[in-house]
Design goal:
binds ligand MTE; 326 residues; seven-stranded mixed sheet; binds molybdenum atom; alpha+beta
């Protein structure tokens, strides 16, 4: 598997996470209180947050809960443990509390599931998940995930490059962007009853970003189908952009002429731009993006431009002002 090896070797040995540094469950729970207080604000960032929210999330605060009592959760080399990936989530449709997304999403119905692919294409189509997996065989891709809040993981995804699906529907010359939409179903997703956001969750990519081979439609991780909390049954993964671009539980993909307006751009345009490329030199208005806390580690590490994928993607942004196009 050429791709597999290529993406494995893409992560330097220096990133190997000593899994010995796992937080104990007890420590984790102690940290929860701190998190909840700032969750609405800190999260991929409620713009103004609830009335009591007025202080910026201290970028270090979240990291401080990891005064690490080692519990030795073994995982292969540098991967974030499956346990952490399954239990520390952002999925605002269910709740803004990362630690309870999994339980709140446990009964989310993800089968049957269809994804409608259309807009400016010659061959629009409605694909069910089984068909997608048959037509585009999932491969393993190990990617870093960097949340705009300042934490990160290394996740072994299963999926297929988005460009394979886009090629199948044959974009028309007028198509310049791709717009993605999450399921809208407030009966199942209680967070969608909140007025803080303009549901459903929408994200977008420029067509060349969407066609890049790193851009993945993920259907699994750690060799299994996606769990609801991770965006089952199919979600986007764009590893060089902040995590909020990687939209979960997708039901609609449209090729469009104009730049789509995402949920986060509507919620706080001064904080969340269309590009959202990981960039340590462009601070979030309320906190620095220079460093991040890798789950399972204690000390914060430096954040890399394009999340470490500059060699692959920097050319997409040649001549662009990255401060302006944040
Ligand atoms: N539909 C939807 N997609 C979403 C989100 C969300 O709240 N709703 N959160 C985003 C954010 S902020 C991050 S960091 C990642 C987290 O993915 P994970 O929980 O699988 O690690 O999902 C992204 N995709
Ligand atoms: Mo995020």
């Amino acid at each position: 598997m050429r791709n597999k090896n290529r993406f494995r070797s893409n992560i330097p040995r220096s990133e190997i996470t000593p899994e010995a540094l796992y937080r104990s469950r007890r420590h984790f729970m102690q940290g929860t209180a701190v998190l909840s207080a700032t969750a609405l604000l800190a999260a991929c960032g409620a713009p103004s947050g609830p009335p009591e929210a007025g202080t910026p999330p201290p970028p270090g605060a979240e990291g401080q809960m990891g005064t690490a009592v080692p519990t030795f959760t073994p995982a292969p080399d540098n991967l974030t443990s499956e346990q952490d990936i399954l239990s520390y989530n952002n999925f605002f449709e269910f709740t803004i509390e990362k630690e309870t997304v999994a339980e709140k999403a446990a009964n989310f119905v993800t089968a049957p599931w269809e994804v409608a692919v259309g807009g400016l294409v010659r061959q629009p189509g409605v694909y069910d998940i089984a068909t997608l997996k048959q037509q585009f065989e999932p491969e393993e891709r190990i990617y870093r995930l960097r949340c705009v809040e300042g934490w990160s993981m290394v996740i072994p995804w299963l999926g297929f490059p988005l460009h394979k699906l886009l090629e199948a529907v044959e974009p028309l010359p007028e198509a310049q962007y791709v717009r993605f939409e999450t399921l809208y179903d407030p009966a199942q997703m209680p967070g969608q009853n909140s007025d803080w956001y303009d549901w459903p969750y929408v994200e977008g990519l420029r067509l060349d970003e969407a066609m890049h081979d790193l851009t993945l439609l993920a259907t699994g991780l750690y060799g299994k189908d996606l769990a609801p909390q991770n965006g089952a049954p199919i979600r986007l993964v764009v590893p060089w952009k902040y995590g909020f671009k990687s939209i979960k539980s997708i039901v609609k993909i449209d090729l469009v002429a104009e730049q789509p307006q995402s949920l986060w751009m509507k919620a706080a345009p001064e904080e969340y731009g269309f590009y959202a490329n990981v960039n340590p030199d462009v601070p979030h208005p309320r906190w620095s993006q220079a460093t991040e806390r890798r789950l399972g580690e204690v000390r914060r590490r430096k954040t890399a431009l394009f999340n470490g994928y500059a060699a692959e993607v920097a050319s997409l942004y040649e001549g662009m002002d990255l401060q302006e196009n944040f």
